[in-house]
C-alpha cells in the first residue's frame, strides 16, 4: 500500500481524484485523463477496481421494481443492435466509468440513445445526447463552421488507394498536422489528416455500398453545438476521398447513413467518429 | 486476494449468483437474446432502483435503465470478471448514464434542490430510504454510519446526488482538496467496513 502511494506521486492522477472518479464525481476532462491513465497503469487500475467494488455496494443496495413495459423496450432495442465488437473511434470519449469497460466502450455509448429519441422527445426536447457526449472532448467556443467540400477525385476517374495516400501525405507535411483513423461500424475504415489551417482530407477504404436510397453523410461536431452537415461521401468500390477546408481543429468528424441526398441533422447514430 | 470481513453464507450465494450472471452475459455477447432477457430480469431491479434514486423520476429512470442495459448488451463481450461483480458493472454503467442525464439538465435541478439543502446537516433518512435491499441494506447503512459528517455528505451527495466534487465543495462550503480527500477516506472506510473483496 505504501509503495503504491509512492508510485502515485509520480502520476498525474492523485489518489484523491481517483476516489472522486469512482463516485462519478469528476468532470469530463478529469474523467478522460484518469481513464486514459488507467489504460497504461496497472497499479492505478487495481486501485480503481477496488474503489469500484466498494462503490458497487452502494449501488446495488437500492433495487426497485422497474416499470412493466421496460423489459419489452429493452429487449426490442437490443433486437435491433448487434454487439459492438469494435469501437468506432479510438480517440472517442469513453462514456463508461465501469470496470471492464474503460477504454473501449465508445461504441456502446451510441447504442442506446437512438432508441429513446422518440420516447424522450416528449419530455425533454434535448438534442441527441449522443452527439454531445461524443465530442465534449472538443468543447470549445462555438465558432461558425464553414466547411467546403470538394471531391476532386470523384466521380470522374475513380479513386485509388495511391490517390488517398498522396492526399493524406500532402496534409501531413504541414506543421502541426494530425492524423486520425478509425474502423467503421459496418465495415471498412476511415483515415483523416488535417492541418491547423483547417484543411482536411478524409479517406475511406473498404466501405460497403450504402443501402438503396441511402447515402453516407459527413458531419462536423464542435463542442456541444449541433452537428453540421459536411457533405455526402461518395463511395466507389469501397473507396472515397474527400477534401475539406476550414474544419475547426477542435471539431470532430462523423459519418452517418442518411436518406439519399442527406439530411439537415443526423437521423441515425454515426458509424464512425474521428476526434483529435 | 482474500476477503476476510463480509464472508459467510450470503457472500458465497452472491458469488454463485454472479457466476450464473456471467454465464448469461457471455451468452448475450454471442447474440443470444433469450439469455439477455434472463439477464435483464436479474439485474434490472438493481439498475432501475439506482437510476431512480439518482434521477428521482420514474420515467427518466426507466429511460436511463434502458440506455444502460442496451450499453450492457453492446459491450457484453468486454465485461471482465476479474474486475468486479456483474451487477456492480451494470450499476456502474447505469450510474454513469444517470449522472450524465442529471448533468445535462443540471441548472433546473440545482434550483430545485437548493431549496431543500439545509447546509451541512446529515440527512440519514434520505440515504436510508434508498437502501431498501434486504441483504445489503443493513450493512451499507451501518457502514455509512461509521463515516464522519463530511465524509458522509461527500459520498452521498456525489454518488446519489450526481454532483461533482466541485459542486459538493460549493454546497458544503468546503475546500476542494478537503472534499476530494474525504471522498477517498470515506471509500476506504466503507471498504474496510463492508469487507469488499477484490
TrEMBL record, chain A:
Localisation: Cell membrane; Membrane
Membrane topology of this protein: Single-pass membrane protein
Bias-annotated ranges (Low complexity): 97-108
One annotated Gene Ontology cellular component of this protein: plasma membrane
Domain (Anti-sigma K factor RskA C-terminal): residue spans on this chain: 138-271
Transcription regulation is among the record's keywords: yes
One GO BP: regulation of translation
Transmembrane annotation, as ranges: 130-149
GO molecular function, one term: sigma factor antagonist activity
Keyword Isomerase attributed: no
Coiled-coil segments: none
Chain segments carrying region Disordered: 81-119
Keywords, ordered alphabetically: Cell membrane, Membrane, Transcription, Transcription regulation, Transmembrane, Transmembrane helix
Record protein name field: Regulator of SigK
Source organism of this protein record: Citricoccus muralis
Lineage, highest ranks first: Bacteria, Bacillati, Actinomycetota, Actinomycetes, Micrococcales
TrEMBL record, chain B:
Residue intervals of the RNA polymerase sigma-70 region domain: 40-106, 143-191
Domain of life: Bacteria
GO molecular function ontology, one term from the record: sigma factor activity
TM spans (from-to): none
Pfam families: Sigma70_r2 (PF04542), Sigma70_r4 (PF04545)
GO biological process assignments: DNA-templated transcription initiation
InterPro entries in UniProt: RNA_pol_sigma-70-like (IPR039425), RNA_pol_sigma-70_dom (IPR014284), RNA_pol_sigma70_r2 (IPR007627), RNA_pol_sigma70_r4 (IPR007630), RNA_pol_sigma_r2 (IPR013325), RNA_pol_sigma_r3/r4-like (IPR013324), WH-like_DNA-bd_sf (IPR036388)
UniProt keyword list: DNA-binding, Sigma factor, Transcription, Transcription regulation
Homology family: Belongs to the sigma-70 factor family. ECF subfamily.
NCBIfam families attached to this UniProt entry: sigma70-ECF
The protein, known as: RNA polymerase sigma-70 factor (ECF subfamily)
Record lineage: Bacteria, Bacillati, Actinomycetota, Actinomycetes, Micrococcales
Amino acid at each position: 500500500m505504501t509503495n503504491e502511494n509512492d508510485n502515485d506521486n509520480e502520476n498525474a492522477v492523485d489518489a484523491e481524484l481517483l476516489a472522486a472518479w469512482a463516485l462519478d464525481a469528476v468532470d469530463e476532462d478529469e474523467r478522460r485523463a484518469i481513464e486514459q491513465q488507467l489504460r497504461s497503469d496497472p497499479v492505478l487500475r487495481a486501485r480503481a477496481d477496488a474503489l469500484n467494488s466498494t462503490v458497487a455496494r452502494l449501488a446495488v443496495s437500492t433495487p426497485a421494481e422497474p416499470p412493466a413495459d421496460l423489459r419489452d423496450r429493452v429487449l426490442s432495442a437490443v433486437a435491433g443492435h448487434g454487439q459492438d465488437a469494435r469501437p468506432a473511434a479510438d480517440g472517442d470519449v469513453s462514456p463508461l466509468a465501469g470496470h471492464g469497460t474503460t477504454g473501449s466502450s465508445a461504441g456502446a455509448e451510441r447504442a442506446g440513445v437512438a432508441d429513446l429519441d422518440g420516447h424522450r422527445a416528449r419530455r425533454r426536447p434535448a438534442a441527441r445526447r449522443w452527439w454531445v457526449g461524443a465530442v465534449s472532448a472538443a468543447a470549445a467556443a462555438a465558432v461558425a463552421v464553414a466547411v467546403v467540400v470538394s471531391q476532386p477525385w470523384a466521380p470522374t476517374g475513380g479513386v485509388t488507394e495511391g490517390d488517398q495516400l498522396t492526399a493524406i501525405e500532402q496534409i501531413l507535411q504541414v506543421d502541426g498536422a494530425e492524423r486520425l483513423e478509425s474502423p467503421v461500424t459496418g465495415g471498412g475504415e476511415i483515415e483523416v489528416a488535417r492541418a491547423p489551417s483547417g484543411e482536411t482530407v478524409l479517406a475511406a477504404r473498404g466501405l460497403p455500398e450504402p443501402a438503396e436510397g441511402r447515402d453516407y453523410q459527413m458531419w462536423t461536431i464542435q463542442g456541444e453545438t449541433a452537428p453540421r452537415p459536411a457533405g455526402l461521401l461518395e463511395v466507389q468500390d469501397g473507396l472515397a476521398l474527400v477534401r475539406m477546408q476550414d474544419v475547426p481543429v477542435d471539431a470532430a468528424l462523423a459519418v452517418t447513413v442518411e436518406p439519399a441526398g442527406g439530411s439537415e441533422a443526423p437521423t441515425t447514430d454515426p458509424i464512425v467518429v474521428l476526434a483529435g | 486476494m482474500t476477503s476476510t470481513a463480509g464472508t459467510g453464507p450470503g457472500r458465497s450465494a452472491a458469488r454463485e449468483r454472479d457466476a450464473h450472471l456471467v454465464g448469461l452475459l457471455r451468452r448475450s455477447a454471442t447474440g443470444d437474446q433469450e439469455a439477455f432477457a434472463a439477464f435483464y430480469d436479474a439485474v434490472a431491479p438493481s439498475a432501475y432502483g439506482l437510476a431512480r434514486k439518482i434521477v428521482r423520476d420514474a420515467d427518466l429512470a426507466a429511460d436511463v435503465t434502458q440506455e444502460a442495459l442496451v450499453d450492457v448488451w453492446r459491450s457484453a463481450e468486454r465485461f471482465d470478471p476479474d474486475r468486479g461483480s456483474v451487477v456492480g458493472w451494470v450499476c456502474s454503467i447505469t450510474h454513469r448514464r444517470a449522472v450524465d442525464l442529471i448533468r445535462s439538465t443540471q441548472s433546473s435541478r440545482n434550483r430545485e434542490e437548493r431549496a431543500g439543502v439545509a447546509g451541512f446537516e446529515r440527512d440519514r433518512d434520505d440515504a436510508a430510504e434508498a437502501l431498501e435491499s434486504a441483504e445489503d441494506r443493513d450493512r451499507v447503512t451501518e457502514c455509512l454510519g461509521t463515516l464522519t459528517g463530511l465524509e458522509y455528505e461527500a459520498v452521498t451527495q456525489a454518488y446519489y446526488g450526481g454532483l461533482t466534487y466541485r459542486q459538493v465543495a460549493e454546497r458544503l462550503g468546503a475546500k476542494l482538496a478537503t472534499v476530494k480527500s474525504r471522498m477517498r477516506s470515506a471509500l476506504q472506510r466503507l471498504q474496510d467496513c463492508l469487507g469488499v473483496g477484490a
